[in-house]
UniProtKB/TrEMBL annotation, chain A:
Cellular component annotations (GO), alphabetically ordered: nuclear cap binding complex; nucleus
Signal peptide: none
GO molecular function, one term: RNA cap binding
InterPro entries membership: ARM-type_fold, CBP80, MIF4G-like_typ-1, MIF4G-like_typ-2
Pfam families, per database record: MIF4G_like, MIF4G_like_2
SUPFAM superfamilies xrefs: ARM repeat (SSF48371)
GO BP: mRNA export from nucleus; nuclear-transcribed mRNA catabolic process, nonsense-mediated decay
Protein name stated in the entry: Cap binding protein
From TrEMBL, chain B:
GO cellular component: nuclear cap binding complex; nucleus
Pfam families, A to Z: RRM_1
Highest taxon above the source species: Eukaryota
Name used for this protein in its record: Nuclear cap-binding protein subunit 2
Subcellular location(s) per record: Nucleus
Record region (Disordered): 21-50, 135-192
Record lineage: Eukaryota, Fungi, Dikarya, Ascomycota, Pezizomycotina
Species: Parathielavia appendiculata
Comp. bias intervals (Basic and acidic residues): 174-192
Length: 763, 192
């Protein structure tokens, strides 16, 4: 492999030698800009090519700066903050060939917007984002023009300090660990912005050494001619970049960020320590790479595997060095494992609250591809990450521990379901409400969903096998009415028969009537009894596959809707019957419930009440530890919030329908708030241990291990839905602002439109 | 519009296979499939039939892969509106492909990017954007009822009934059966 500077020079020369090709000139400039935002790891190298080309053809820098300034202005205007950062990084790398103060006036101007925003509101997130961008641009400026701008940088950082050190009001909501649930103390979370400020201050104190960053524009001392050519090359004025008075949040909601690592607190540093600027600088460019390249996960994985190529030599230990061998590395040689750094970055996204930029499955797929590309290097790093997360899952935010479970089972499904289960074998004997036992049970269920019980059983050591009950190995569940022991067995069989031969409503009605009158005789709820029988029969008739059951529901939807509408208890029984019938395969039950929600046979409240009040109540709170109960509630809430979001951002189609639309919108928002209130209500009593069922079952003190764990589950659930509620409220506020802004814009443009029309009339 | 071409290939593009099929259709309209109602007016610029596609063709499934497994994996990209399993047109049993329909175009694109080429039931599956399911397309178009690719496949694939069925038949009966060529034209038979 050729050294960087030779490669850089070869490309620059190839370009300037063909300067007469006009198309090439434009393409070159456009490609430089596109690379900066699509493959940010390459930015310093691209900048180096530009700097060398500047020696022969200074015009190219003017062409580039013209467009680059335009892009920066445009992306700031739209609030596309990541692109702003990536363009500024490119510009920062070119500081050496800029006239005057170069990038600094832009950074200062940006900072003044941040100050305005932060002064106006303590909940502002744009100002924080701007400060983050400034702090992440500075290092590139400092290495591009070493030794010149220390005072400028110090002045700027003195100002950013105030914003960076202020903890954000939303920060507690998005911390990855839940405080105060257990005796163990979770690792301290670090606000990204606070960390950045401290790291850069450190760098400033050390004369901006920044040893990890590549400097491909530096030529070896013996290349005297090339060195002086770069130094003496023309300087260029940066075209004016106008920053609008009010900046906008842009298309992606902004939240304060936390620096998260699965490799913190190890006895040997396999990733850069928090105090080191390298931690943030490497992470930042990896995250941009990952999130920008979501359209090709193979390339993302390739960049992650090759990440050591994009940083200064000796920044990392050799690839695929086993963790145990890091100990033998003598200082000052680096012990940072490139695989750990890569895996850490992906997990920080997978486990980002409230949500990462892309669907979670994207981050799954990146880890899968990385593992496929370099199994020997990546798999051990993943293994250590899994062990860390398994250990910390009980302390983690509940949403995150389920994200971990979902990833884990999906990941294994891509690699033959192999995992060293033996190392957790003791945990099989924990009570079912223990978070680690829940994790195992939930992960196995998810594995089975992606495969089948017998297959998964074969991957497990003996003690785990008992967790996979014989029911799970059956193709279809038993029909409880097949045995005469079940109440209403004869009627159940009769209805199933009628459904199978698609008999008339009257015939079914007759049997339902019979069930109801028998139920009244036995003094049980008649509607609940008949609903249970009917739903169980529909499920039985459709047991062969999801299409069968969906077809069966489609045929009986009116009767199901009537049954559900008859009483709250009957509606709740629809869920009970479904969960009971598919108890061995809760995944199937969940799909059915989702479809019943779509038909409005069930309402979101039914689901919430079933899970958090009745089911949790009947199990003295232990249902709160079941992964599928969480999944059911979470999916339902996401469905509701998703619909509200869709309604809120939908542009109104016409004035006439506008009234209807805003009525629907308001109604749905109200319903969503009521749903969150119901969740809060139900969970708060579990979290404090004041639930009747808990007090009744209690030994009096409420201090038994089981009760303590149920309270913890309650607290963890509560935190998830309080956050969800807060996020949706924040979304509504932002959407409102955006609508107002758009309406204003529209009013302005229609005024202009009227003017044009009048003028045309006059003509 | 997505702007200029990306510096790396996108995984949410239709496959070369779809594009070729589509191109050919434009030229020989007489042979257009009856189920294909893509509007192709002669002189109007043709609209991309996949512009708002919400459906994916999913191939290389095992014959034993169930709807529930497909649901579990594909729901990771969004709620599934409809799932149609591909069936052997004689035996009405799964024959290794399906159509997954989402509610939104974005979910379908994300599925191309994040799920296509990963494993389901321990097989690498293939996804392709599809203009939409129409009745009849759920059946294999191979001579013996399954997909065309399973007629003459020479490798032994346990999840897809061993070696090609036509080959199996030939081995059983000697090679008296001469294959006609036209009717093997399965929309997705070529696999990869």
């Amino acid at each position: 492999m050729r050294p960087w500077h030779e490669e850089v020079q070869a490309i620059a020369t190839l370009f300037t030698d063909n300067w007469d090709d006009e198309l090439l000139r434009t393409n070159f400039v456009d490609l430089v800009l596109q690379l900066a935002v699509e493959q940010p790891l390459k930015t310093p190298f691209v900048a180096a090519v530009v700097l060398v080309a500047n020696g022969n053809r200074p015009e190219v820098v003017d062409m580039l700066l013209e467009k680059l300034a335009g892009r920066i202005e445009e992306t700031i205007g739209k609030g596309e903050w990541r692109d702003v950062k990536l363009y500024l990084k490119l510009l920062g790398c070119l500081q050496g060939c800029l006239e005057g103060e170069g990038v600094f006036p832009v950074l200062e101007e940006l900072f003044s917007r941040a100050v305005d925003l932060q002064t106006a509101s303590s909940e502002d997130t744009i100002g924080t984002e701007i400060v983050k961008i400034i702090l992440l641009t500075l290092p590139y400026v400092m290495i591009a023009a070493p030794g010149q701008w220390a005072q400028k940088a110090a002045d700027l950082m003195e100002k950013t300090e105030i914003i960076a050190s202020e903890p954000h009001t939303l920060q507690t909501l998005i911390e990855p660990y839940q405080l105060g649930t257990g005796e163990e103390n979770p690792p301290q979370s670090q606000s990204l912005i606070g960390l950045l400020q401290a790291q850069m201050q450190n760098e400033a104190n050390n004369g901006w050494a920044l040893p990890c960053l590549p400097r491909p524009w530096e030529f070896p001392l013996k290349e005297v001619e090339q060195r002086s050519k770069i130094d003496d090359a023309a300087k260029h004025a940066l075209p004016t970049i106008t920053i609008p008075q009010t900046v906008v949040a842009g298309p992606r909601p902004l939240f304060p960020e936390i620096y998260f690592s699965v490799y913190a607190n190890q006895d040997v540093e396999s990733v850069p320590p928090l105090a080191n600027a390298a931690a943030s600088l490497i992470r930042d460019v990896l995250l941009d790479t990952i999130n920008v390249l979501d359209f090709n996960r193979n390339v993302t994985a390739r960049h992650l595997i090759d990440l050591d190529c994009y940083f200064a030599p000796r920044t990392f230990a050799a690839r695929a060095t086993p963790f145990d061998r890091l100990r033998d590395i003598e200082p000052p040689k680096s012990t940072w494992k490139p695989e750990d750094v890569a895996v850490d970055a992906v997990f920080s996204q997978l486990l980002q609250l409230p949500n990462p930029e892309h669907k979670l499955v994207y981050y799954h797929s990146v880890l899968t591809e990385a593992c496929k590309l370099a199994p020997a290097a990546i798999a051990p790093s993943l293994g250590r990450a899994i062990r860390f997360l398994y250990r910390s899952a009980p302390l983690m935010d509940l949403e995150l521990s389920y994200r971990f479970m979902d990833w884990f089972s999906h990941h294994l499904s891509n690699f033959g379901f192999t995992w060293k289960w033996t190392e957790w074998v003791d945990d099989v004997y924990l009570p079912d409400v223990h978070p680690r036992k829940t994790f195992i049970a939930g992960a196995l269920d998810k594995e089975i969903r992606l495969s089948f019980a017998q297959r998964i059983k074969n991957t497990l050591p003996d003690p785990y096998k008992e967790m996979i009950t014989p029911e799970k190995e059956k193709d279809t569940p038993d029909f409880k009415f097949a045995s005469d022991d079940a109440p209403f067995a004869a009627e159940g069989r009769e209805i199933a028969g009628l459904l199978k031969r698609k008999a008339s409503d009257e015939e079914i009605d007759a049997v339902i009537q019979r069930i109801q009158s028998q139920a009244i005789d036995r003094e049980i709820d008649a509607l609940v009894a008949s609903t249970d029988v009917f739903v169980t029969c529909v499920l039985h008739v459709g047991s062969k596959s999801l299409s069968h059951v969906l077809a069966a529901i489609e045929r009986t939807k009116d009767r199901l809707a009537d049954a559900g509408a008859a009483s709250d208890a009957a509606r709740s029984q629809i869920i009970s019957a479904t969960m009971a019938y598919w108890s061995a395969h809760p995944g199937v039950a969940l799909v059915i419930i989702e479809k019943l929600l779509n038909y409005s046979i069930l309402t979101p409240e039914t689901v919430i009440n079933w899970a958090l009040v009745s089911r949790a109540g009947n199990t003295r709170g232990e249902a709160l530890a079941a992964a599928h109960v969480y999944e059911m509630v979470f999916n339902t809430v996401m469905k509701v919030t998703g619909r509200v979001r869709q309604l809120v951002v939908k542009p109104s189609s016409s004035l006439a329908s506008n009234v209807d639309e805003s009525e629907t919108r308001d109604r749905e928002i109200k319903a969503m708030r009521a749903l969150f209130a119901a969740i809060e209500d139900a969970l708060a009593s579990w979290a404090t241990g004041s639930k009747d069922e808990m007090i009744e079952a209690s030994d009096g003190e409420g201090n038994s291990e089981g009760e303590r764990m149920v309270r913890q589950w309650g607290q963890r659930w509560l935190r998830v839905y309080r956050r969800r509620a807060a996020i949706e409220e924040a979304f509504l506020v932002e959407a409102e602002k955006e609508l107002a802004r758009r309406a204003e814009e529209q009013a302005r443009s229609s005024e202009a439109g009227v003017e044009v029309v009048t003028r045309m009339d006059a003509d | 519009m997505r702007g200029p071409r990306c510096t790396v290939e996108r995984l949410d593009q239709p496959s070369a296979y779809f594009n070729n099929r589509n191109k050919r259709r434009r030229f020989d309209k007489d042979q257009r499939d009856g189920d294909d109602d893509i509007n192709m007016q002669n002189d109007q610029p043709e609209e991309d039939p996949l512009k708002d596609a919400t459906t994916l063709y999913v191939g290389n499934l095992s014959f034993y892969t169930t709807e529930e497994q497909v649901y579990e994996l594909f729901s990771k990209c969004g709620e599934i509106k409809r799932l149609v399993m591909g069936l052997d047109r004689f035996t009405k049993t799964p024959c290794g492909f399906c159509f997954v329909e989402y509610y939104t175009h974005q979910d379908a694109l994300d599925c191309m990017k994040y799920i296509g080429g990963t494993k389901l039931d321990e097989r690498i599956i293939r996804t392709d954007l599809d203009p939409g399911f129409t009745e009849g397309r759920q059946y294999g178009r191979g001579k013996s009822g399954g997909q065309v690719r399973d007629e003459y496949r020479e490798d032994y694939d346990e999840g897809r009934g061993g070696i090609g069925r036509a080959l199996q038949a030939r081995m059983r009966a000697g090679s008296r059966d001469r294959a006609g060529s036209r009717d093997y034209d399965d929309d997705y038979g070529r696999g990869k």
